[in-house]
Amino acid sequence: MYAFELTRPTSLADAIKALGEEDAQPLSGGQTLIPTLKQRLAMPSTLVSLSGIEELKGIKNEGGTLSIGAATTHAAVARDGSYPALSDLAGHIGDPHVRNRGTIGGSIANNDPSACYPAAALGSGATIVTNNREIGADDFFTGLFETALDEGEIVTAVKFPIPEKAAYVKFEQPASRFALVGVFVAKTADGVRVAVTGASEGGVFRWSEAEKALDGNFSPDAVDGLTLPADDMIGDLHGSPEYRAHLVGVITKRAVAKAG
User: Fold this and answer.
1) Contact 53, 13 (CB under 8 A)
2) Which residue, of 110, 133, 161, is where some domain finishes?
3) Domain carrying residue 219
4) Distance CA 218, CA 232 (A)
5) Does residue 254 lie within any of the structural domains?
6) Tens place of pLDDT for every residue, the chain, 260 residues?
7) Are residues 149 and 182 in the same domain?
8) Is the distance from CB of 168 to CB of 183 less than 8 angstroms?
């Protein structure tokens, strides 16, 4: 580790002010950022902790929309149960330490290509709320570790419309428990959404072909015969691009079956 300043604001206004200083970076649960700092892959001079800001915590069910404060931990989401598929997802992130320290806002803002929450947000058609605006999930995730957030803009909450049916299934890498491939399926009055994480070099994405098939027949059989090209899939020591492309179909069928 290296020397840096740590500030602990207790209000969102104070946090925004602190982040306006040169080379300041927000710190939420720290489950991704701290290892990054240890490896010197990022070296901000000031960290602005968001963990003491009560207005960024908590879960509210507002007329069929679940609003979750950005500093709410994975463990809290897992316990809530208002959106069963989301609570199930949160309960299988990492290990107990990660679930009790990591936050939904940090995960969404980091947009790791193998993280679970981006698939939930995109699959649910969630809205990401920041200190400046509201951004639909379809516009928020823009690429590998990239989002629509501007400099100094932070996630304050995520709003999930609760669908008729939903489920998340991941084929996890056993050491990290990240998704080698993860699929979030949600059936709403407006149609079916299928979001895939862990597979693509471009990060989380919607599988539109599967969505169209499932709109007409919400059953695992509807995905039979559908394939994804391996061109843009991740290839590493855990699996080839072809293997991941195949897994997307397998895991999508399992997610649809789980959603019922």
Assistant:
1) no
2) 161
3) 165-259
4) 27
5) yes
6) 667 788 899 999 998 888 888 788 787 877 776 767 676 666 777 888 888 899 999 999 988 999 999 999 999 999 999 999 999 999 999 999 999 999 999 999 999 999 999 999 999 999 999 999 999 999 999 999 999 999 889 999 999 999 999 999 999 988 888 899 999 999 999 999 999 999 999 999 999 999 999 999 999 999 999 999 999 999 999 999 999 999 999 999 999 999 98
7) no
8) yes
Q: Is residue 14 part of a domain?
A: no
50 found inside a domain: no
Round to whole Å and give the CA distance between 143 and 147: 7
> Pairing state of beta strands 46-49 and 24-27?
parallel
Residues 149 and 170 in one domain: no
Which residues lie across from 6 on neighbouring strands?
47
Name which of 125, 120, 82 is nearest 104 in CA terms: 120
39 lies in some domain: no
Burial of 113 (0-12, 13-18, 19+ CB in 10 A): buried
Domain count, the chain: 2
> CATH number for the domain including 250?
3.30.390.50
Cα–Cα distance, 46 to 31 (Å, whole number)? 17
Angle at the Cα of 45 from the Cα atoms of 41 and 50, rounded to 5 degrees = 90
Kindly report the CATH number assigned to the domain that includes residue 86: 3.30.465.10
Q: How far apart are CA 221 and CA 124, in angstroms?
A: 22
Rounded distance, CA 208 to CA 191, Å?
A: 11
164: phi then psi, degrees, rounded to nearest 5: -65, -45
For residues 11, 17, 21, 25, the Cα torsion angle rounded to the nearest 10 degrees is 40
